[in-house]
Write a structure and sequence with these properties.
- With 363 residues, the chain is an alpha/beta fold.
- It folds into three domains: 157 residues, Rossmann fold; 62 residues, Adenine nucleotide alpha hydrolases-like domains (SH3 type barrels, Roll), CATH 2.30.30; 81 residues, Translation factors (Elongation Factor Tu (Ef-tu), domain 3, Beta Barrel).
- The protein has a six-stranded antiparallel beta barrel with strand order 12-15-14-13-16-17.
- A hairpin with a 5-residue loop joins strand 14 and strand 15.
- The radius of gyration is 22 Å and the shape is globular.
């Protein structure tokens, strides 16, 4: 009897390494596929060569075939151009969300199908379940390890993509993943987790961004319009940011730390304040491009929401404005709600879907 073929996205990291091992242990015909999605000629420095060597070493240790595929052009067109456009417009995008939909479950999925795959596995901390509610067949579930759950980054997956997804780490804690990798003697067992831009890696962000967008320095002003200093370019700053402002002590402002309160794109001014001003507080957001993984229960309903990845779920009320536009109002005021980020809805262990924050509701 032929084994079911599963293609695993081997990134050269510990999570995908252990995911590949678990797939083989479960009896699948496992094939590793490494994605090279950034060309050195595009700028910056990339660790793709080192990651590819680690992926090959893991595949050899697990005795599975491993191939490399280049999606650099697709990544640049589908993800990176959007990334640049959002920064140019003064917003703060999350390219990791987009590259899951547009690359990992886009051309990668198509390549996996060409190689005869019935499923595509990744090292994401997430789960999947059959869920027939009349409009959807599959649900996206939170991982057992709440501290590593990555459903936030998968909120844009469609049903036809989720159908092929398999998440071997759904029920496993991160420390157990490290333990398994160590026991197997994998080269990735103690490798540091990647925290850089999706598929581009860790780098000096300001220098990297300046290679693609010309910086436009301007004035830093307080909320009353008084000049405080100069900024390097509005694209380098995000709402609520405290570090990297290079504003020393100022007479009459006290000793509290400065933070970004607003960005005046018309006048090219960075607006700052010190202390804990209320201008960053909002009650909710209007989201566009909302993707429903499972069907919404009613035109208005209550659930929980993450307005950024590193945040506890917040109690919210949801109002459906149209097919892909949603109004989300939080029970408690939220700090530094940021256009360009994703608001992701949850109902218990179910990730309902998410959308891009377009507007902030102040009151």
């Amino acid at each position: 009897m032929n084994k079911k073929r599963i293609i695993i996205g081997l990134s050269g990291g510990v999570d995908s390494s252990v995911a590949a091992y678990l797939c083989k242990k479960e009896g699948y015909d496992v094939v590793g596929l490494f994605m090279n999605n950034w060309e050195e000629s595009n700028g910056g420095e990339c660790n793709a060569a080192n990651d590819w060597e680690d992926a090959r070493a893991v595949a050899a240790k697990l005795d599975i075939p491993c191939y490399s595929v280049n999606f650099a052009e697709a990544y640049f067109d589908r993800v990176f151009k959007y990334f640049l456009a959002e920064y140019k417009a003064g917003r703060t995008p999350n390219p990791d969300v987009l590259c899951n939909r547009e690359i990992k479950f886009g051309p990668f999925l198509e390549e996996a199908k060409r190689l005869g795959a019935e499923l595509v596995a990744t090292g994401h901390y997430a789960g999947k379940a059959i869920h027939n509610d009349g409009q959807s067949n599959f649900a996206l579930l939170k991982a057992a390890d709440n501290t590593k759950d990555q459903t936030y980054f998968l909120n844009q997956l469609r049903q036809d993509q989720l159908e092929y997804a398999y998440f071997p780490l759904a029920k496993i804690k991160k420390d157990e993943v490290r333990r398994i990798a160590g026991k197997l003697g994998l080269v990735t067992a103690k490798k540091k987790d990647s925290t850089g831009i999706c598929f581009i890696g860790e780098r000096k962000f300001k220098k990297f961004l300046s290679e693609f967008l010309p910086a436009q320095p301007g004035l830093i002003v307080d909320t009353a319009g008084k000049e405080i200093g100069r900024h390097d370019g509005l694209m380098y700053y995000t709402l609520g940011q405290r570090r990297g402002l290079n504003i020393g002590g100022r007479a009459g402002y006290g000793q509290s730390r400065w933070y970004v309160a607003d960005k005046d794109m018309t006048e090219n001014k960075l607006v700052v304040n010190c202390g804990e001003g209320g201008e960053l507080l909002g009650r909710g957001v209007i989201c566009g491009g909302f993707n429903w993984i499972t069907s919404f229960p009613a035109i208005t309903f209550n659930c929980t929401c993450k307005f950024r990845y590193r945040q506890e779920e917040q109690k919210v009320n949801v109002e459906i404005l149209s097919d892909n536009r949603v109004k989300i109002t939080a029970d408690e005021s939220q700090r530094a709600l940021t256009p360009g980020q994703y608001a992701v809805l949850y109902n218990g262990e179910y990730c309902l879907g998410g959308g891009v924050i377009e507007n902030i509701i102040k009151h």
